[in-house]
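On clarity, I found the account of how folds are encoded harder to follow than it need be. Since the whole study asks how a given chain folds, the encoding of that fold should be made plain. For illustration, here is how one protein appears when written out as sequence plus structure tokens:
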Amino acid sequence: MMKRFYLLFSAVLLSTAGLYAADGETAGSGKYEGAVKQELQNHFKFYGFVRNFFTFDTRESVAGTGDLFYYLPKDVAMNSDGSQDLNAQTSFRFLAITTRLGVDVSGYQYGRTKFGAKVETDFYAGLTGSTGTAQLRLRQAYATIGWDGLRMGNRTDRTASVTLKLGQAWHPIAADQPHVTSLETGAPFNAFSRTPQVLMDAALGKNFILTAGAIWQMQYTSTGPSGASADYIKYSGIPEAYLGFTVRGGGFLGRIGASVLSIKPRRTGENAASVEMKVSDRITTVNPYIYLQYRHKDFEVKAKTIYSQGGEHLNLMSGYGVTRRFDDGHWEYAPLQASSTWASLSYGRKWQVMLMGGYIRNLGSTEDLVTDNGKTSENDFWFNRNGFRNLNAMWRIIPTIAYNVGKFTLALEYNITAAQYGDPEIRQVTGSDGKPADVEYYSTRGLATDNLHWVYNNRIQMMARFTF
């Protein structure tokens, strides 16, 4: 895979450099080679790192990317005689699959219009758990188009600049991240999503930025009756819309924004006569947030709070459920709400100390979900694919110490994450096959209310990274 990557990239460079070759020149001529070198120096900046994580956990947990991308500890799972919690199990692994390669392209201009691009990849693909052959996968790939020195009204001393980003990049709600070295960068307390988008940043003078965009789904998707899928936004036909405003100056940065998402959980449904019909199901949700940052020399502090409605496409602990069913097969929905807040700080350069803390609260649905004798079934609402329906709250604390020498970093991080679970009511019902089946029932707002209890995981992780 790596060999193919370099062969392809070399072919692109040679094709580009060929534009500079005069008639009669060959690819081996000094002038031709000079054109290639000049092109690379002027427009291409290669970057990346080799990164290894060494990770120890005290409990079975939900984690991805070879168990390096951490979400939360699993609930208690007692064996049949009640003598052991089967999820109280330690584990260890170390992997280099998050090694990264990237290239930034800049310096191309036509008139007053500037062009650039980014392509970024790592080796996450091809793994099942911690087993498999790591393969290159796409992280980011976008082009930029920009204009500087735009006049603002009749003022000649104040100008604006506008940049358009087209392609796959960080979702604007996920772009500001806490001080951690762990792979999940604060998720699920912080949003985490890289996704196709068209995003505009308009810098209005030195201190204000207006951001607006249309966002699609690919790897990080909404959930629903068919599981996690991009089909819900695909058949909705409406991209996620984002609007944000940033103010900066004197080491301070503040940002406020929100996204609006409208999806179709189902395309067909059965009417009262059990005839399959096309339906117009739709749910629209809003995810606002506030972000603050202050930096002075080697000290920096950050904080963010997100109110999510159906924010599972952002890796937030949220979802939605059914509120009404109609005889024509149409359903209505209400989002589950959650509050996600984190704060972090960093001090130092060669020796760097960091601390991050976060808290999540599941607030339940905005309306009562459909019920059976005052309870709602797990089949009536859908939650983040990396979480659990009986999850009510979470908190996390991560202290980190890092040693930076030149291009090499060695970091040691301790992560304690606690999750509050509750027990839903279990009822035995008759399934469609006529056999008895156990069904979990929750409160009318989709919350677990019985036997609330906390479980904990202690994660000790060391990171070794060489940046180039």
Summary: The longest strand covers residues 131-152. DSSP finds three helices and 26 strands in the chain.
